Amino acid sequence: MGFGKTSAILMMIVVILVAISCHSGVEATRILKEDFARGNQYQTYSAIYEKAKYTMDLWLQKLPSGSSPSGPGH
Questions:
Q1: Half-sphere exposure of 5 (CA within 13 A, CB side)
Q2: What residue stretch is flagged as signal peptide (predicted)?
Q3: How many Å apart are CA 45 and CA 51, to the nearest integer?
Q4: Which residue of 30, 37, 43, 53 has the smallest Cβ count within 10 Å?
Q5: 20-42 per-residue burial string, b: 16 or more CB within 10 A, e: under 16
Q6: How far apart are CA 25 and CA 19, in angstroms?
Q7: What is the 3-state secondary structure (H, E, C) of 6-21?
C-alpha cells in the first residue's frame, strides 16, 4: 500500500470516529404558547377559514369563463 492510500484510509477512520463521538441526541420537544389552549381558539380558526374562503372566491372569479378554445389538446 502506498503512502497516499494509507493516509486516505486513516483519514476516513478518523472522520468516522469523530462523527460517532460527536453524535448527540436531539431534543424533539416544542414549546407551545400558553394561549394555545384558550377558549377562543375556535374563533381564530373560524376567522382564518373565512379569510381563506373569501380569497378563494376572488381567485375563482378571475378565472376565464365559457367554453374552451377548440384546437389540439385534450
A1: 2
A2: 1-28
A3: 10
A4: 30
A5: eeeeeeeeeeeeeeeeeeeeeee
A6: 13
A7: HHHHHHHHHHHHHHHH
∠ CA 21-22-24 to the nearest 5 degrees? Answer: 110
Of residues 24 and 21, more confidently modeled: 21
pTM of structure: 0.32
Q: Mind listing the pLDDT tens digit for each residue in 29-38? A: 666 555 555 5
| Amino acid identity at 52 | A
Quote the mean pLDDT of the chain: 75
Enter the C-alpha cell of residue 2.
502506498
Please compute the mean of the pLDDT values over residues 41-62 and round it to a whole number. 80
